Amino acid sequence: MRKRLLSTMAAVTLTGLAMTGLTGTASAAEPIKIGAIISATGPASFLGDPEKKVLELYADRINKAGGVDGRPVQLTVYDDGGAADKAASFTKRLIESDKVDVIVGGTTTAATMAAVPLVERAEVPFISLAGAVVIVEPVKKWVFKTPHTDRMAAEKVMEDMKKRGLTKLALISEDSGFGKSGREQTLAVAKERGVELVADETYGAKDTDVTAQLTKVKNNAAAQAVLVFGLGQGPAVVTKNYRQLGISLPLYQSHGVASKEYIRLAGGAAEGVRLPAAGLVVAAQLPESDPQKTVVTDFTKTYEQAFTSEVSTFAGHAYDGLMIALDAVKRAGGTDKAKLRDAIEQTKGYVGTGGTVTMSPKDHMGLTLDAFHMVEVKQGDWALVK
Predict the structure, then answer these.
(1) What is the model's pLDDT at position 7?
(2) Would you state the pLDDT for residue 316?
(3) In 3D, which of 279, 256, 48, 226 has the Cα closest to residue 132?
(4) Phi (first) and psi of residue 197, to 5 degrees
(5) By C-alpha distance, which of 366, 377, 355, 358 is closest to 286?
(6) CATH of 7-148+289-368, one of 3.40.50.2300, 2.60.40.10, 1.10.8.60, 3.30.1540.10
(7) Is 212 exposed, middle or buried (0-12, 13-18, 19+ CB in 10 A)?
(8) Which residues of the chain have pLDDT under 70?
């Protein structure tokens, strides 16, 4: 049985690192160069800020434990502020100037897709932290991702709708990379699942009021439920306007808001909202038999102790990206980029914060639909829908 970077790659502790052949001479060895492009500031900061914190936290903890096979992790992080052009510029810098071995990041779909042609051309392994299915479908040789896709989110929402006897959906999506892809996937999944799309509205990422679009939804007598696809503050604005208009239909969001920050921004208006999310946001509510239970419980404890704030799904995406990359370094026997790429693609049975990951040449994400949990906002917190 292959050794893993962490003990069984399931516990978010550093005890396992000491058991995987570390020499304790990390400071003298050639570093493993990890680059990251993160939206730590700007409209996607509630995703990117926890990602940045986690990458820095675990790089430091791993180095203090002796590194990976005696090699220290050298982390270089650039903040793109949510701008795709900056993401492209920083990706180029990571490749050409910093000469990184692997890149973890791309907080948003737009930032990720700006980086994709650069990493593909330079043949540098890239593990994205963004949600759109377009990142890995069709498969791109050097590109991988850790979060569940927008297609999976649409599937999970419609699965829940069917359980509630709902078959007519109104969609409101953000006019952005993630929102646009989410809209496309929702349209496709609806056809496959026998759900009728009775409204199709969009809003801008910086819009502070979407009552005009929501009024159309309210006046649509056929609608039985509403799905919002977006990131950042926009979905919270939609949620507030939704309640202000007195719309009583079930409201769904995508996994793009699976963070306590969404609940804070939306306030009481978020009560009753459902969305698909990783087990991380309901760690304490998972059954003991769930293989993620130990992973997400330990990660939550580590994160909240380090930053005195609630754990974030997006922090988990960064953790998984870093661990998958470093585990691949071990299995590849070094940082030769071609061997490292192959090792990432051969990741099997990695139990992370997002689910159990098994990649292949045809699947550069490695998660199945059961990695998603349907959650609901109850009394200002996430509750597992059973």
Answers:
(1) 36
(2) 97
(3) 256
(4) -85, 110
(5) 355
(6) 3.40.50.2300
(7) exposed
(8) 1-28
